C-alpha cells in the first residue's frame, strides 16, 4: 500500500514535469543517485504496481499530497543530493507552510482558465511569503504571534499529511534509504504545531461566521424527520415515468433504510453482491409472539474489516414504511421484473459460482453488466436533493445514515456496547474473532421496539400469501424451482460446496413472501401509496387472488390483537379464539350502534323539517282562511247596504264581523279597512296580502314571493301583484322586510340565469348561507354581498349628502 502510493506520486510529478514549459521551470543539477532512484521508482510506477487493497478514495487523498511534497523538495532543495529523503527540518518547514497557508480551492482548475503548470502542486511564491514568519523550534520564538490565515486547513488535513509522511518513511525504510526512526522524523515540535491547528479551529469558525447547524447537528435533526425523508424518497420514485426512475427510486429508499437500520457505510452496500446476503430465524424467546427474521449481509471489504469479514444485521420493522427488508423486496422484485435476471438459470448455473457470485446487489437496470460496482453519486445526489427540499442540515451524505442509526439507539437508551457491535466500531479481540454475534436488543430497537427486551410482535408477518400468488411474482417465477433443485443437489452431494447458492435461494424465498406481505400491508394502512407504478406494472397485483389476500391482511390489521393476549394463547389455546370472537362481536356491535345512531339522527332531522313544513302550511292556510272570510264579509255587507234598507241591522253586524276578523289578521291596519270602506266596489285583486315575517328556508320565501304552494296565490304572489298593481298595493308593508326579501330573490334569479339552473337547485345552493345567517334577512343580504351575488347598496339620505360634502354624520 505504501509503495504503490509513493510510486504513483513520483510518476505523476515526473510526468507533469515533462509536459510543463521548460522555460518556466527552475532547473538544477541532479545527483546520479537521485537519477537512479527516480528511474527505479518511475519504472515501478509505469509497470502499474498497484495495491488492490488500498481504497481508491484513500489513494485519491494521499497521492496529491505526496506529489506536493516531492514538488516542494524539487523547488526548495534543488541542489540537495538526496532531496526526497525525509529529515525533521524538511518535514517541519513543509508542515509549517501547510499549517499557515490558505486552504486550496476544491474542484481543480476551473473550465476556461489557464493552468499554471509550475504551481500546480506546490506554490513556491506562497511558501516564501509564509516562511518569513517561520518560528524556529526551541528558539524561544514560539511566544510570538502566529500567522493568521483567513481560511486555513483543518486538523483532519494536517493528520492526513502526517499519514503521507508515515507512508513515505515506510518506503524509505523498506528500500534501506534511511536509518532514521519515525520519532526522529515526526518530532514533538510537529505535535505542538498540530495542537495549534486543532485549537484555532473554533476561533476560525467564529471569526468567519461558519454555519453551526451543519453535519454535527444533522443526525439529531434527521432522527426527528426520519419518516419524512422516507416519504420523500417514496414519492420521488413515482413522479416520472420510466423503469429507470422507478427502480432507482426504490433503490435509494432501500439504501436509506438499510444503512440506518444496519448502521452501515454506503460503499459497503455498493460493493455488496447478492451472494453476500442470507437470512436467519433465531430461536423464539419465551416472550415473543411472532418469530423474528434477521437479514445478515457480509462485509468482506471495508475500513474496519482488516482482513476479517464483518456483518450487517437488520430485522423487519414494525412500521411497514420503515422496513428495510420490505424495501429490499420492493427493489429486487421490480428490478427482476425489468431485467428478467435469473429467469433462464438452470440448476447447473446456480451450482456454478462463477456465473452469479459477482452480480451486485445495487445495479443500473439499463446496464448490461450487473457485476460492476455502481458509482455512489446517484444516492449522494438524491439525498442532497431530499435534504435540501426538507430544509435539513447536510453533513457527509454517504455516511449520514450510519450516523443516524446510533443516534436513534442513543435516544432509545441502548447500551453503548450494542451500538459499537451494530456499527462494527473498534471491535475488541474477542469481538474480532466472533463478529457474527447478534446484538438482539439493538436490532429490536432499530426495528421499532423502543424497549429492546419487550416481545417481538408484528402482525403482518403472520399471514402467509397463497402459493399461487407467491409463484406469480417476478422472483417467484423461478426461485421455488431453483431452491428445490439446488437443495436436492446439495443433499445428494453430502458436502457444503454449494451451500452459498442454497442459502441465498432460501433468503430469496423468504424475501418473496415478505414482498407480498408488505405490499398488501402498505396499501391497507396507506392507500395513497397504491398509486405507485409498481402496483400497476407487476402482473402479480392483477392476479385474481391478490384482492382477497389484501382483504385478509386488512382484516388482520384492523382486528390486531393485543400482544399480551396473543402470548396468552400459548398457555390457554382456547382463550385466544374466545377472546378474538368477543372482540369481533363487540366490534360488530359498535359498528351497528354507530350506524343506528346516524340513522336516528337523520330521521330526527327529517322529522323536524317535516313538522316545520306542516306548521308553515297550517299557519298559511289559517291566514288565507281568515283573509277570505274577512273579504267575503266586507263584500257582502256593502252589497246588502246598496239594496233594501230593511236589512241594515244585519249588514251592520256583518261589517262588524269583517272588521274584527280583519283586525285580528296580521298585516292589516285601520287604514286598509278605511280604504275598503271607501271603495264601493273593491276589486278582487286589492284584497290584503301578508308577507310572512320569518321563513324557515329560502324555499318557502321563494314560494311566497311567486305564489307557489304552500303559499299559493291566484295573483302570483308578490311578483304577480307588482306586475298588476305596481307599488300601491304594498304600501302597508314593512319597507325593510320587503326590500331585503326582494334583494334575496334577485340573488336567486341571478344564479338561475348565470348557471342555467332550476329555481329549486338555485334555492338549494343558498340554503347553507341562510342557515349561517341565523334566518336573519339583513345578515343574509350581507352574506350575499360578500359572496358577490349582490352589489353593495349605495348610501342614501343624510349619509349620502354627508359623503358628498366630505363630512361625517353623527349616528343617532
TrEMBL record:
GO-annotated molecular function: DNA binding
Comp. bias intervals (Basic and acidic residues): 671-684
Start and end residues of each stretch annotated as Disordered: 662-688
Ranges for domain Transcription activator GCR1-like: 689-767
Taxonomy, superkingdom: Eukaryota
Keywords: DNA-binding
Annotated ranges, domain Ndc10: 250-544
Pfam family, one: NDC10_II
The protein, known as: Centromere DNA-binding like protein
Organism of origin: Nitzschia inconspicua
